Amino acid sequence: ITMSGFTQRKEFFGMHAPDGQGKVKWLSGAIRRVAEFAQANPDKKVYFLLENPDFSSGDVRMALHQFLLERRVTLEEETDAEGRRKLDMALPDNLEVVLTMEANSDIGDESFMDRAAGCRLEAPDADGIKEYLMRKTLIPEEAAAFLVDKVYIPLKKDNALSEKITLQDIVLIGNFIAGRIRDNELHVSMEEVARQEAALHLMSKFSALTEADSLAILHRALGNIPDTKVTISPDGRYLNFSGIRLEIDASSNFGRYVAR
To answer: Average of pLDDT values for 177-204?
Structure first.
């Protein structure tokens, strides 16, 4: 979870949500889901990564007190196997909670730092991020190196950009690159593919009206956004959107339009 001032308690502990049929159902939060995944896979090491906890609000950090300090959590709205509420869940031994933050961050909350002491609180190095990217998205080393060395690390050092560019963005860009590789739509170097996808995604996060200075910094770092080329395969089954191949649903309005 990439934490920010907008991160809410319900992301961790669950919430009530409409089910699409006019009823409300309970959706478990990330803590229960990741704990149950770890329990179901006892032979695997499972990591629950909390990025930028220093950006979250004080009430969210307070809600995580028991989770971080005691490695267990009381889920008041959950029910156990017998339908009883207030489920008390201990974290499995194979589940490790990892917090990452900028090396120069200052939370100003000593009690939170005490609770986090039982976790690995660290700023991942470049090699670690590259390895994670390649394992997570299956992109080649050349693309991962460009995203980390030329995009993520330099831009995170810029105060105008650092809060809006996260590791989650870089992973998403990696998935876009993997899609282009999978669809065999590579007409330029791997580094150029990484640059194009980084420019397309990151520049879309900033407003041309209110964040022109930030966009100018991105433009200097990443260059122009590539032209978006959209083509349809001769059989009408696929839409190629700037190198990403999407299957056309023949029963949709667009699919019927293409067929005509």
So the answer is: 85
pLDDT value at position 224? 82
CB atoms within 10 A of CB 180: 22
Pairing of strands 230-232, 238-241: antiparallel
- What is this structure's pTM? 0.50
What CA–CA distances, in Å, run from 192 to 103, 142, 219?
Answer: 30, 10, 15
What CA–CA distance (Å, rounded) separates 143 from 18? 41
How confident is residue 144, by pLDDT bands cut at 50, 70 and 90? very high
Residues 6+ apart with CB under 8 A from 119: 68, 96, 97, 98, 99
Mean pLDDT calculated for residue range 118-126: 63
CA 127/CA 134 separation, integer angstroms: 11
| pLDDT interval class at 38 (50, 70, 90) | very high
User: What is the dihedral sign for C-alpha 105, 110, 115, 118?
Assistant: positive
Q: Where in 119-165 does DSSP place strands (E)?
A: 120-122
Tally Cβ neighbours within 10 Å of residue 51: 17
Does an H or E element contain 214, and which? Answer: helix 212-222
